Amino acid sequence: MLKTNLTQISKPIKSELIRFNEVFKDSLKSKVGLVDLVTKYILKQKGKKVRPLLVLLSAKVAGGINDRSYRGAILVELLHTATLVHDDVVDSAEKRRGMPSINAVWKNKVAVLMGDYLLSRGLLIAVEGKDFDFLKIVTDTVKRMSEGELLQIKKTKKLDIDEKTYFKIISDKTASLLSTCCEIGALSASANSEYQNAMHNFGEYLGIAFQIRDDILDYVGSSKIIGKPLGGDIKEKKITLPLIYALNSATEKEASNIIKLIKKNKKRENISEILTFVKKFNGIEYANSVALEYSYKAKQMLEIFPTSESKLALEALVDFVIERKN
Amino acid sequence: MLKTNLTQISKPIKSELIRFNEVFKDSLKSKVGLVDLVTKYILKQKGKKVRPLLVLLSAKVAGGINDRSYRGAILVELLHTATLVHDDVVDSAEKRRGMPSINAVWKNKVAVLMGDYLLSRGLLIAVEGKDFDFLKIVTDTVKRMSEGELLQIKKTKKLDIDEKTYFKIISDKTASLLSTCCEIGALSASANSEYQNAMHNFGEYLGIAFQIRDDILDYVGSSKIIGKPLGGDIKEKKITLPLIYALNSATEKEASNIIKLIKKNKKRENISEILTFVKKFNGIEYANSVALEYSYKAKQMLEIFPTSESKLALEALVDFVIERKN
Question: Which of A35, A114, A120 sits opposite B139 (nearest CB)?
Answer without folding.
Answer: A120
